[in-house]
Give the backbone structure.
Amino acid sequence: MKYPQLFQRALPSLTRLQSRLRAQHAYDLRLGVKLISGSLRRLSADRKVAAVRSSGLFDRDYYLQRYPDVLKAGMDPVVHYVLYGANEGRWPNALFDTGWYLKKNPDVVITGENPLTHYLLRGEEEGRAPNAELSLEHLRRSFPETTPGHGRLLKEKLKHQRAGHSPSMSPSAKPSESALQETATKVRNFIEKGRTKSSTAPGLFRDFTEFNRVAPFISPLASPFSEESKRVLGFMQAEKRDLLKQAASQQHTPGPQVSIIVSGCDNAQDVSEVMESVRRQSYSPVEIVFAVPNAERQVSAPVDGAHGMHFQPVSVDDSATPQEQRALCVEQARGEWLLFLDSHTLPAPYAVSALVAATIRNPWAQAIVSARMATRSPSCTADDCNRLVSPEAWDDDGLALEYAWYTPAMLENCCTVPMGFLFIQRAHFLAAMQALPQTSSIVDLSDWDAAKSLLYGARVKSVPLIAGVIRRRDSYKAKQLAKTFNDSERQAFCSILNGRALLPMMPSDSPEKVASMHTLPDSLVERGRHARATPTRLCTVIIPSYECLPYLKACIASVLTFTENKIKLVVVDNDSSEAVKDYLSALEQSATHHDVQVILNDRNYGFTYAVNQGIEVAQQGSDIVLLNNDAIVTPGWLDAMQAVIEEVPEAGIVVPRQTLLAGTKTMRVHNPRCDASVELDVNLSVHHGNILDPDMYASLGFIALRFAPFFCVYLTRELIDIIGPLDYESGPHYRSDQLYCEAARRIAEKQIIYTPFSKLYHFLQQSTTELKSTDKAEYQEIFVRNRWRPSSQAV
C-alpha cells in the first residue's frame, strides 16, 4: 500500500482528533502537527512490521532463542526487529546477516528500507546474497527448480535447514546469555586483549558520532586500525584542522599565556625529547616550567627561547615524587592556562594552538580534555610524535587511540582522564586545591586522584583532538588506591546514616559495602544546587512498594532526611505482608514535615499501575519523582534534579546517578571497562545503549540520553500533561519506562537529561527477588510474562 493511501485511511480518525481538540478549546496547531506526524510514523512502522511478519523469512523462535533480552523484555520479536534489531545488526533467521547485508548494500541504508523486506522484494531477484558465506549462485544450484525472487530460494534453504539437511550458516546462538551481555563480553575482551580480529569493538560504532556515544566504555582503540576506527581518526583530523583555522583567525589578537608544566622526567633522555616537543609548539606566548633534580641541575636562571618561549627551571630534591615536582612547578607558573606533561607525554606541534582555540570556541570551559595516541615504544622521539599523530601511522602496529569524554562518575571508577595533556585554567586549579580536605594536598594525590579533584566542579569540554603521544602506555592503567579522595564524604555520610538510624536498617550481609557509601564532594553538590530557582517546583515522590521492609525503611528515611524542601511522599504498596502494611500505616500517621500518603492495594498490580495510582493522588500541578523502594538517596539529590529543569527548559525527564555498590553482579554488563571493586554509576550504560549526545549540554555538565530505566526519574508536569501516565497495559512491570522515554522524545519533543550532581544508591531488584522466592506463579505472570490482566485493575 502506497504512503498516500495510508494517509487517506488515517485521515478520518485524524480529522476526528482535530475536531475533538477544538471542541475542548485546547487545540494547539503545533501539538496537532506533532500528533499527526507521530501517527504517520506509527503507520509507517506498522507497515514494516506487517511486511516482515508476512515475509516467511522471520524465524520467531530463532530470534527469541538467540536474543533472550527480547524474550525477557516481553516484546513482540517482529516489532523489536523492525524498530531496533535491524539497526543493531541482529539476525532475523539463521541465514540472513542483517549487518553484513547493510554493509554490502549501502543503497538500502540510504533509503532506510528494512533490509529483510528489501531482500524479499528485490534483493534476491537482483542477485544479492543474504550473508557472506551464502551466494545466490549456491542457492540456485541447490534448488534449481525454484525461481529466484521474493525470498523463495532463502525460504527453501531455511526449510531444509530446519529439517536437518544442512547446517546453520550463522554463528551459534547463546542459549543462556542476553545479546547485550554477549556484546559487553566482546567489548571487555576487546579492552583486556587490546584488540580482537579487528581493532573495532564489534558492532558498536560505524563513525565518530556513534563512537563518541560509547567511547568511555571501549577506549582505547588499538592498531592496526579498522575502517571504522579510521573514520574516527579522520574526524579527529578534521577537528584539528578546524581548530587550527580558528587559531589562525586569532593570530593578530593576543592570546592567553600558557604555562606548560613538565614534571616526572627521571632521566636526561626523557627531558630531552619532551623539551624538544615543547620547543616545536607554534603558539605564543608560552612558558615552560620544568622540574630539575638538584643532582642534574645545569640551568641556574630562566631562559628565553625562540618565538617568545620562556623556560623556567624549578629546582627539586632528588627524592621528590612527580606529584611534588608538579606542585612546585605550578607555584612558579604565571600562565592563565596550564598544560600538564610528564616523561611519558610528547605534545604535537599544534597542541597548544589547538587547545587555546578550543577555549576561544568554548569560552565557558575551565578545562579541556583531549585525545592521545599511545605507543608501546619507550624510545619514541619528537620526530616520531609528528608521524604518529598523522594518517601515515594508521596501519602501524603498537598504537592505541585513547579518548573518553569527561563525566565525574566514570572518572571516579577508573582513570578515563589522565593528567597528561590536561589543559586547565590556573585560577580553577588553585581554587580546586584550596577546596581539598585539610588532610590532603596535591602532593598527596596520584595522577588519577589529582585529575578527579581538579575536574570536580569544573566546566569541562571534551575535544576529539589528538594532542600528542603517550609513551609506555602500561603506566596509565588505572589502579584502585588504598587512599581515595572520598574519605571525608564517606565518613560524613556514614555519620549521618548512623545518627538517623539508617545504617542498622541496611542489609547485614555486606556491612563493608554499606559502610563504603559516600556523598558527592561539596563542589559537585553546589554545582547541582546553584541554578535552583526559589521557591522550588512542587514535587510528589512516588515509591511503589512490595516487601523488603529493611530496604523500604532505609529508602523512606533517606528521602525524609535528605530532602530539604517540603514534598508530598506517596507510597503505593502492592499487597505486602502485614509487617510492611503496619509500618506504612504508622508512617502515614506520624509524618510531620512532609505530607505522606499510603495506598494499600489488596493484590500485586505491578510496578507501572502502582506508579499511576501515585500520579493520580499527587499534588495538583506538581512534578513527579519515581523512586524504587530499594534505593538510598544522598544530600542534595532533589535540588540537583530540579536545577536541571531551570537550566534546560526542554527537559522532560531528569535522571540522577544510579550507583551500584562494589561487587554488584551486573556492573560489567553496563560498563565492561569498569573496576568492579569500586562503586559504579550505571545510568550511563553500554547495556542500555542510552547515550544520545554527550556534547549537547557539556557546558552544564549534563548528558542527553535516549532512555533511562525508571529506578529513579524526575518527570515534569508539562511532560505528564502531554503524554499522560505510564502505559500499564503494554508493560505492567517493566517496558513501560522504555515506552515513556520514546513518547517523551518523539511525541512531547522533550529531552531526557542525566545529571552527575544528584546521586542515589540502588540495591537492585530486591522486591523482584523476594517475589520470586515467595510466589513463583505471580513472579512468572508479572515479571517473566509481563502481562496485564484486565481483571486485575483496582476499583
